[in-house]
Amino acid sequence: MTEAEVDDKRITLAEAAKMVNDGDGLFWGGFGYQRAPIAFAHELVRQKKRNLTVYTCGSEVDLEIMAGAGVATRYEIAFSAIEALGLSYNIRRRVSEGKLAVEDYTNLAMAMRFLGGALNVPFMPLRSMMGTDLVNLRRYRGDDKLKVMDCPFTGDKICLVPSIQPDFSIVHVQRVDKLGNAQIDGIVGEDLEGSRCGKKLIVLAEELIDTTEVRTRPDQTKIPAMYVDHVVILPYIAHPMMCHDYYDYDLEHLMMFHKMTRTEEGWQEYLDNYILGVDDHHGYLNLVGWDNLHKLRATKPWGY
Amino acid sequence: MVEYTKTEFLIACASSHVRDGENVFGGTGMPLLAALLAKETHAPRSNLISEAGFIDANPREVPLSVADTRYYYGCSAAIGLIETLGFLLQAGRIDVGFLGAAQIDEYGNLNTSYIGPYDAPKVKLPGSGGGNDIASSAKRLIIMMAHDKRKFLTKLDYMTSPGFLDGPGAREKWSLVGGGPEVVITDMCQMDFDPDTKKIGLKSVHPGFTVKDIQDNVMFDLIIPDDVPTTEEPTQKQLDIMKKLDPKGIYLGKGG
What we know:
heterodimer; A: alpha/beta; 9-stranded mixed beta sheet; 3-stranded antiparallel beta sheet; 12 helices; globular; B: alpha/beta; 7-stranded mixed beta sheet; two-stranded antiparallel sheet; 13 strands
């Protein structure tokens, strides 16, 4: 049996970022240190995108980059910090300067908003946030941040959060075929719902595999090709964060990043060197150094 | 006499609140080591869960992130966020959650979001993450705080996570799934909550501190029982296990 003729969905990172218009909304994949689409954040910065709204639960270095470079002006998120290292200084500065507005939710609330978007229903109910300032205080979304109501069935108080169907979903995975069948190893975080809620889905993957390989372990396909619009294949997309079974986080780089972002000058130096000072992701990887990158490669069976 | 650091003391103290067979949200840092220590000692059948999706975890090295691959090897399941925060936590299946905060009030409500006014914050803190979800829906909450007068306030700058909100009946009024905070562990003492008024009181004082030290370092009236016990010190066995769990001192090395 032969595969039916289908489009090859592969494009370059620059082509993918070019599709994003100023003012667009993006679901941002990855969770904590895991599978962060850092390379895409870098390219949005190099292409000088502006006024983006980013929706995610808890991303770290990538949110710092997009806030620091002025690419994103609105975040609808639950968490911003670099776990184990400390506060996210860029976000903290941009919030104080009034250049970044953060509409605060919880991790479950954001995951439910993505699930609602993916299911094509206008809102989802949940039982968090009630009685706290997450309900009482709102920024630009105002009344549309969330609603608390009496459940029409039980009469209990329930919180409703608006679903999200952003312009793009940006998701980083381990493997993909050229049709877009995307395989994720390890935890999925909120990427199942997130990948299905966007109007367009761009999948970034470390490795290209043949569709025959996909069919040998279809249970690993967490995002079937039918959802996927474009595919970008690149190594070390998440550096300095981690990609399960492929490479570990680069703690030295991460600590340098966190230290430099303490001051605006330090951040501008990082931005000039590592993001604006290189032509593309390969330039960034060359700058980080292949000796360093090879040291991060995961060892079986640990996956890091 | 057993020698220990402040961090080791707090971890041992926190671990004593985990019971065998419980489902525990461990996170990272001191709570993670507390949950692992409990598992290695009095609670071998406790089930350590990370909100990123790791279930029944037995990490051989301590993770830096709740999504760190170090959580993966030895788990019995690695799924995702709707699984852990939704199917497990919101459905009432999590027994214990650990939280820290920048500010706490006398009802155990927590601030992890902003210092200063909401409209012009002085400092943007990490936010809720899964913290509010855990405080809303875990059966019991263990809070770990640095003991500082500026952190124990009558009015929070921002209420991120619910303790007992404005007092008796408030959690019921908002149909919260979980039972609320059980204990607050600081570097000076343990505090718990009066079952009737839901207000915070002194439970035990750590060795080397007096009741007055503690009263001097909170901004509200603390309920002080007539007889305040001294918090139990860690055993040598607990200390040895902690060092085995974190041989590089990633978390033990901090703030010792």
